[in-house]
């Protein structure tokens, strides 16, 4: 079994009276694809937001590579190597595809003054941006403004931007939301390929993709972890089927 | 991609610059005896153009709406007035750096506090800090109270005793101001097209996303705030030379409101727009003053109309001129909605950055 | 500073703070619910004062003047909201700032055209012209006490409306998340018009009852507007409770500041604001 990259203990987040994430113990191992499943409002996105530092936890601990990171700002956590993408498409529409990735890659130039640092480092950074595009098969779109790309391509660009920041751990919030069947298959392949180099946590509603991709799955209901385990275990779990899969099916068919 | 405009923008700006630059040739023919007065007016417009440009970096590029920018303008004026010796001219070589240093320090302190706030808070706090200095100088004995401080001599520009430029000469001063506007413009163009400018654009579009990527957006905003403040202080220094005094009204919030108006009239976020805006605003005001003693009411109505029908300003008209067809379309508002090249659905920015949580 | 003097200043600070609360509550309501920053808010305070000045001499009674002026102020609020603000709700704050800045120029100049540039005053109404003997050598104006009473009563009404009515629930929800209001199935247009008119009326009313206490002069709205901005920033935008405590704090600070440290008096409230921004950038009660 590979080493633990990220773990949480008793992670809790309250909004007023509402407990969105309740005493969550959660761990991610190196080079795995860990999917988080759960019905709407189960606290999946809040969990991701806590991990990426979007807001601080009310209680509990988050350790990343054995260092506590709870309470740190989003930008610090991002630079430590946790990259994330958002549920809503979140690219910069006025910039080209390449510029979007350059913007992402350049966080490692170091601070405000880094903007004017040596050309050599800048070149290295731009190289990385191009690599990210290559990985996501978007090179042919490099000089297209993001606003002019299709929805699916924008979603892929978002993944490319996360890659460009050179993360060790990627948090992807519904990377395939709103995509067509073909695009979904394409992104599934892409993510599978990434798992060799990166560790992935993903929230996804598309069951087929999740079962195909994930090594392990955590199922959340009402802010709590219902069950965590290898994909096969979750697939076979009675508990999960009752509480989540049943409900999910209803939702889909409703 | 960003901050690139059609060729005609360059052409129009060059032609306008040339027309202004050769004012001494055509001024007397057009204005006759009033030519000298008009040149002074023009000098003032150039100074205000520099001021408006500096604010564009904050408002148009970063998206920080400051209603206290006159603070730095006035600070430049007062620094010059208070640091000038009473009976001899100061040397520009240490006066200009001093003005910039004072403004930079003030911008650093004020910026540190106001950058912590967002949206409407930012507007209110910048306004309040501007007023703080306003009340301070208008009540303090050291700053001449409401009368302000007079400047007896404009700074000298000398090297080793040889006079390079005589700033007391209105024509020389006019060209100095013109040069400052050109330099300021080129500087901002370079800045907005640099990577630093790209980050600022990113913050304007989606600060949240920039943070998630790993940018310390606060630092970038603070640096932009300082650069903008320093530029404004230089404009204020020139204004004080032009008027011959530093006065509390130069840092009052009406001045902040007016410069914001120049920005919107000219077209914010374009860097060249505010220059046009400063000229347009001053020409309008000059015209209204001749029409009625109650000219502020006309100015107010103009502002309201400009906001309602011309939110992208004159620059917006130049960058994509309304076609006949679109003009004919029902609402005059439709073709000028803010939000540059953004897709139609995002053309209208939300009124406030949404609160982070629930 | 002896105790008597201190008590008078305390009362003055309280009275000023309560007056500020009336103005700031309107400002914070309009922002909290409507997302509109209204720079012309101070001008409405000025107009309230001028209206009462004008009508007192026309009608011969301060009380009748107030009765007549309130509908005028509400009507003005309605006109402004329907005519101008309607187009601004979805636009950037920048445009709201500029439009309402234009409104200030128009209203300030309209005031000059109608009432001229002179400084005026309104006599304290006879009913409250007396002074109350607090101690042997300490008197306090009846009218100031009356103003305090009225402000406190209004604060109580506002508190009650916000705590115990359906409208209050909407207001509280709106201050936290404006989109939620639309989700509650409420006619937002009507709500906005109502809120704006109430906000404007509160401010104008503050100007009316303050008229006998201050000199009525052009531009009197500008400085009070900025003081109220400070109040709102300190209290937290959209929070009525914040506006109340912020107003009391600023009222006291300004009153005692001008007595204790006259050289820095004009800066005191801004220094307080800076301190609050350092500790709680979103205001004390946000």
Automatic annotation (TrEMBL), chain A:
Keywords assigned: ATP-binding, Nucleotide-binding, Transport
Entry keyword Ligase: no
Molecular functions per Gene Ontology: ATP binding; ATP hydrolysis activity
Domain of life: Bacteria
Annotated GO CC locations: plasma membrane
Chain ranges of the ABC transporter domain: 6-247
InterPro entries associated with the record: AAA+_ATPase, ABC_AA/LPS_Transport, ABC_transporter-like_ATP-bd, P-loop_NTPase
PANTHER family: ABC TRANSPORTER ATP-BINDING PROTEIN, CONSERVED COMPONENT OF ABC TRANSPORTER FOR NATURAL AMINO ACIDS-RELATED
Protein name: ABC transporter ATP-binding protein
Source organism of the structure: Billgrantia endophytica
TrEMBL record, chain B:
Segment forming the signal sequence: none
Membrane topology qualifier: Multi-pass membrane protein
UniProt xrefs under InterPro entries: ABC_transp_permease, LivM-like
Superkingdom field: Bacteria
Key words, A-Z: Cell membrane, Membrane, Transmembrane, Transmembrane helix
Compositionally biased tracts (Low complexity): 341-358
Subcellular location as annotated: Cell inner membrane
Region (Disordered): 339-358
Membrane-spanning ranges: 12-32, 44-72, 92-113, 120-137, 173-191, 212-239, 259-284, 296-319
GO molecular function: branched-chain amino acid transmembrane transporter activity
GO cellular component entries: plasma membrane
PANTHER family: ABC TRANSPORTER ATP-BINDING PROTEIN, HIGH-AFFINITY BRANCHED-CHAIN AMINO ACID TRANSPORT SYSTEM PERMEASE
Protein name per UniProt: Branched-chain amino acid ABC transporter permease
Species whose genome carries this gene: Billgrantia endophytica
Lineage: Bacteria, Pseudomonadati, Pseudomonadota, Gammaproteobacteria, Oceanospirillales
TrEMBL record, chain C:
Bilayer-crossing regions: 16-40, 60-85, 97-115, 143-162, 190-211, 223-244, 256-279
GO MF term list: transmembrane transporter activity
Swiss-Prot/TrEMBL keywords: Amino-acid transport, Cell membrane, Membrane, Transmembrane, Transmembrane helix, Transport
Broad class of where this protein is predominantly found: membrane
BP terms from Gene Ontology: amino acid transport
Membrane topology: Multi-pass membrane protein
Domain of life: Bacteria
A Pfam family the protein falls into: BPD_transp_2
Protein family per UniProt: Belongs to the binding-protein-dependent transport system permease family. LivHM subfamily.
Protein name (Swiss-Prot/TrEMBL): Branched-chain amino acid ABC transporter permease
